[in-house]
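Entry 14. Structure prediction run on the chain below.
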Amino acid sequence: MNTYDVAVIGSGPGGYVAAIRCAQLGLKTAIIEKYNTLGGTCLNVGCIPSKALLDSSHHFYDATKHFATHGINIDGLNVNFEQMIARKNEVVAQTSGGINYLMDKNNIVLLQGTGSFTDATHITITKSDGTSERIEAAKTIIATGSKPSTLPFIEIDKKRVITSTEALSLIEIPKHLIVIGGGVIGLELGSVYKRLGAEVSVIEYMPTIIPGMDSMLSKELQKVLKKQGIKFYTGHKVTSVVNKDEEVIVTADDKKGNPVEFKGDYTLISVGRKPYTEGLGLETIGIKVTKQGQIETNEHLQTNVSNIYAIGDVVKGAMLAHKAEEEGTMVAELIAGQKPHINYNLIPGVVYTWPEVATVGKTEEQLKEDGVNYKSGTFAMRALGRARASMDIDGQIKVLADAKTDEILGVHMIGARAADMIAEAVIAMEFRASSEDIARSSHAHPTYTEAFKEACLAVNDRAIHS
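Output returned:
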């Protein structure tokens, strides 16, 4: 029987990062993956393929809507959807192959198959051909991720009633895509197909889209996406989804409780994700889980079985790849005897629509609820020379700072390249910067990041360009 210092179950961003960090720290490490490709949901059917399609569709949208204004005339522009999907698949294959390279580079043993605990230190790996092997691991990190959630009355047939997984590999552009759920996944994939010519309707149970983010972002994003042609039905409760051959009929109760019917050729169910722990044998070794299916852990991400840890989507908190990566690193370092920590308040969130949405820290609603005395500053992207030059004038940045100390408490952005710009806010807040610290830092001109500086200036009524 092969023995290891650490076994990692799951090769998504949390799992493979944990394995690499363990190996860097001198621990003999194995990674167990049930699928044929490494990278988990993120690399195979999540973050990476969705961004590939978002980029491809954005190029087409720009070409159809903006190129003529730039003085670029294109005749006979059309979408080769088959090639678009093929490029997405190539990006996924390259990225997943890169994880294999990293495993080899760091001398991490890859064990292909489904891992299941036989006891706290022994794992049985069942391979696709039915054979199995048993290993011993002093420590184990569970990083098995999540899978799409659904509603009890919805039957996902993966043909017309689909999840994000199927939406990334359709064989045609929908005529009318009905999106159930106005969160990150639904809005990103809805944007892809709207840009390519589909009619897109988003049905959201809550009164706003991207619930949980700052209300400014929700209002601004809905306004911009509505201008792009996406239809929104907030405050609607879906009551049934019926697939009738090549038509899907969705029934929902509107804000007044009246039934409304939607008809489309595809319906995307994007009502969140749930932890994936099936087949692990958690009950065999008595690992505790919550009613929501999350593995219970302490502040060190240690389960009630002391030598077993859990990270990423299977534990509480935001289901984000970069959150899982940070947790993978932290657990590896804890196992090696170090004392790392994570500030969960400073894990950024991003929506990769266009304009992009990015947020970190407290929302204005949270500060009000907590009774925090704060001040705020906002700056519109359209006031930037760089934004006007690129025709990306939608959006704004809001900075929230402590009224007494001026420490930045939250930053909320919607605009071009917000996903990249939020990193400056994260770093600033990690070092507990004040809004004046950013306001007095030189930002290259012309850039989108000048909007962050101007919003910080606006916190103290000093914005220059508004």
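The first strand starts at residue 2 and ends at 9.
Filed with the rest of this week's runs.
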